[in-house]
Every structure is written in C-alpha cells, then in structure tokens.
Amino acid sequence: MAGEKSGWHKADGGQSFAALVAALPAHYERSEKWSLKGSAVAADRYSALSPNRLTVNIAERGFVLESQQTLDLSLAANWDSIAVDYTVAATRAGKDFYIYACQQTGAAPKILISANSTAPAGYTASTSRKIAGFHCLCLSVGTIAGHTLTGFLTGDILPASIWDLKHKPREATPAGMVYVDEIGKWVDIYLASGTGAATASVFNATISDTRDWMSFVDDGAAVKKRLLRDYEFQRMAAGSNEETNIFGSADPVTTGGHVDTASRRMISNFGVEDACGAMHQWLDEQGFRCDPDGSVQAAALTFTVTRAAVPGGNPIYMKWDGAVPYLCCNMAAATADKFVGPANYKVNIKHDAAAATGGLPVYFDDDATQPARLLVNNTAFAKDVFILTNNPAYMLQVKHSATANSLGVALYYDDGADNRLEANNASGVDQSLDLALNSQGFAYYDLPGAKGSIYRQGTNGDVKLLAGLYWASGTNCGSRGRTANSYRWAATTDIGGRFAAEPV
To answer: Largest CB tally within 10 Å, which of 2, 18, 234, 476?
Structure first.
C-alpha cells in the first residue's frame, strides 16, 4: 500500500508483522550494528547510534524500533538515572555501560542507557532487556599522528567496544573488551586483574602478576577466555607506543590510563591499554630453548686430537656466518670442506684460503676439563660459542678465553693422507673431544599445582612466549617485542596476562 514500509504494515489484529516476529521467543534482530556517531566532532564521540530498524522480544512481547536513535551521553533523558551523573564525562571514565530496550505503551521500545548490568533503574528483568553496551575511555588519548583514537577524550565511547546481542563474545562477558576486526576476536582492554572466576578486564584494578602460564590459562578459562596468540597480539597492539616503556620505568601496579617515557598515551588503535612497555604478557605459543648443560648421555661421542710435534696441514680458525659460528682452514691438500667426528655426529670444517684473514685462531688445551678443551679469544662477543654438528642436539663447545694462546696450543687440520685434527699436546699423548658432554638429557619436572610433570630437555627446554615487554625494557618494547626464554612455571612481578574471546 502506498506510503507503508514493505513488510512492516498491519496484519490482522492490528499488530505489524514486525511486531509479531519480534514476539518470537528470545527474538532480537536489527538492520545494522550499533555504532559510534562519528569522530570528527567532539559530541559525536560520546553519542551512540542505534540501527535503523530493530525488533526485540521483551518478556514475550514484541517491540519494533522503526527509525534510528542517537544516544547522546551528555543528555539526562537517555539515562535511566543520574543519581550518579554520567552526563559528565569524568564520571564515565573507564566504565562499562549497557543499553536496554524497555517496555512501554505502544509498539516501540524505550531505549535507555544504564550503568547497571542487570536492569535499568525503574525497570526489572521482566520489563526490560539488555541488548547492547559499550566501554568509555579511561583517559584522553591526546594527539597521536595516524592513531584512530587521536583526539578522543576521557569518557568518550571506544568505538571497538560497542556490542549487541548479535555482535559480542560467544560466551564471555563483553564488559572491558574491544573487537579487533583484523583478527576477528574480542580482546581485553586492560591487563588481567583478579583470579579464577573473579578474573576481569577493568580500569584502575590491581594487575595480576607473579602467576605462571598455567595459572593464567586457568584464570582465562574460568571466564570463558583464552590467552592471545603471537599474531593476534601483534595486530591488536598496533598503534601502541613502540620502543618505549611506561613513564617512570616502574611497575604500573594498576590497570589503564598510563603514558610512556615520551608522555604519549599507551593505547592501541582499538583502545587496548598498556599492550607495550608496562608488563610482559603470556602468549598461548610454544617454543623451545636449548642450553647445553653438560648432562652426559649414555654413550660417549668422541673424536681424537692426535698429538704431533710438528702438526700437519694448516691451523683452524673460527669465523661467523651472520650470528652462526663455524670452523675453517686453508686446506693444504685439497680445496674442499671436510668433516670430523663420529658417524652421524660430524663437525664441518670449511675450506677457506683466507682463513687467517678475519678468523680467530683456535687452540687446544688438554689440561682443561671436557668439554672446555677448545679455546678462542672471542673478541667480538667475549662468550663461549657452540658449533653445530649434523645432529643439532649435539654441539661442539669453543670456550672464550682472552689468554687462549697461552693456555693451549694451535689446533691444525691435516687434510692429507692422515685427514685428522692435530696439535702438539702438552701431555705428549693423543687426546679426545666428547660431543656428548654438551648435550642435554631429558627428564620429568614436577610442575606447580600437583597436576602433572613436563618431560623437558635440559633445565629450560620448555618456552612460552611473552609479549610487549615490561616497564624497564626501553627500546625493546613494542607490538612485536617478545621474550623467548621463559618457561611455563615462571612467576614474577613483571609478568601479567591479557585475554581474548571468540565472537558469536
């Protein structure tokens, strides 16, 4: 019929078809998502827009919103109560608010905003229905070039925090969360506070720390959330401060509203607080750390350094391929790489006609305790290095010593008929090197909580990634900043957590 909206005209009995549909159990439908009015004008940043069309069941009655509404937070008429005056921006700082559809005379619902998470003032759960909500910024962002929230002020609505019954976490509460569309997940705005079922993402709460990875996993699960993955952290932290830590370089203690050493707000493009440079944050990522610790394997893996008063061939040197050390020698008989060591555990010695140019001479000290018999004055890094074999679980140690030349004798490789390592050993006899002494044994470690053990290699073989870095990490902090040497049972004051949730 002329002038009527298709699908919305009256059915027999006087109700619109839309109202009849809305009366279906648990019904909620809308034409588009709830949204922020805009960001260019200050008043738009504290105004939420309803969908153009909305149908909702409230206590078995169907209601229809036929035109878009603007919910200006500065207007008392949009609130259920101003006993606490939330029309004032400062009172909204870091708080969650809820949008209710309430019963009233007629087909249209009354839309109200409330700080109450169960029912708005003047209504009950039988006369109202919570259909949407949002979180308000805890502290003004200031001017940050290229940042999506530049210019947003305390008490403004965080755009990515706006949710409704069709756009929210699947099981977790949407309070204190933002939707990161690039990863398709809801993410906590704040570092985790509380533990177990009391775990939350709330402003100005005491940060949970000194808890191991396993405890954070349990905390998140208790509220239907999980730890972030590596790529998820990187994207949700985009727009945060990079290569700076928190102002004062000290434990932030409480969540949100912080600035960095350049007085720049520590907030991401999505509104996530303190992602970088405040606290390490556990990730749900597994890694492995190999620290040769001298635990001996069942069988020795030895090869000989033959004593020769006049060693054949030429001296062996150590060089670097980027960060990887290797042994080399100017082969006298043939210009080809050689291998030494027991079968399946051999060490490569590369042919290099200019081995002495830029190479560090390697010495053999047969008075030293294995595995520290090979010496080099490692002038570049001043630390021991480990040369890979063709079995990466077994490495050849080359010990740093500033006095290597006085403690040992030059190590040679005779690539002629003998094809062996030679040195004028001080002991006057052949000696050996044992690769097994630099391998790690596997053993069970009893994890905290009396819930099982981990079968790990060495002391620190297990690794869980930490992201963002902490209050004293300086230029190492950032959305891509990671620490890859923390085992799952680590629990220190500088490690916190942050959670994500799956969408509906």
So the answer is: 18
- Residue from 400, 326, 321 nearest 363 by CA: 400
Cα 67 to Cα 69: distance, rounded to the nearest angstrom: 7
Residues 6+ apart with CB under 8 A from 355: 314, 315, 316, 317, 319, 328, 329, 330
Q: Among positive and negative, which fits the CA dihedral 112, 113, 118, 120?
A: negative
Q: Which residue has the tokens 């907030």?
A: 267
Question: How would DSSP label each residue in 50-96?
Answer: --SSEEEEETTEEEEE-S--EEETT-GGGBS--SS-TTSGGGGTT-E
Cβ–Cβ under 8 Å, residues 388 and 324:
yes
User: Is the Cβ–Cβ distance between 87 and 127 less than 8 Å?
Assistant: no
Q: Which CATH number fits domain 168-289+465-504: 3.30.470.20, 3.90.1580.10, 3.40.50.720, 2.40.50.140?
A: 3.90.1580.10
CA max distance for the chain? 113
CB atoms within 10 A of CB 209: 21
Structure tokens of 427? 């002991």
User: Per-residue pLDDT tens for 116-166?
Assistant: 999 999 999 999 999 999 999 999 999 999 999 999 999 999 999 999 999
> What CATH architecture does domain 13-159 belong to?
Trefoil (2.80)
Fold: same for 13-159 and 168-289+465-504? no
* C-alpha closest to that of 461 among 439, 481, 476: 439
- pLDDT tens digit sequence for 281-334: 999 999 887 665 555 454 578 889 999 999 999 999 999 998 899 999 999 888
Q: Using one digit for the tens of pLDDT, what is the confidence trace for 440-480?
A: 678 899 999 999 999 988 777 899 999 999 999 999 999 99
Ranges of each domain in the chain: 13-159, 168-289+465-504, 302-438
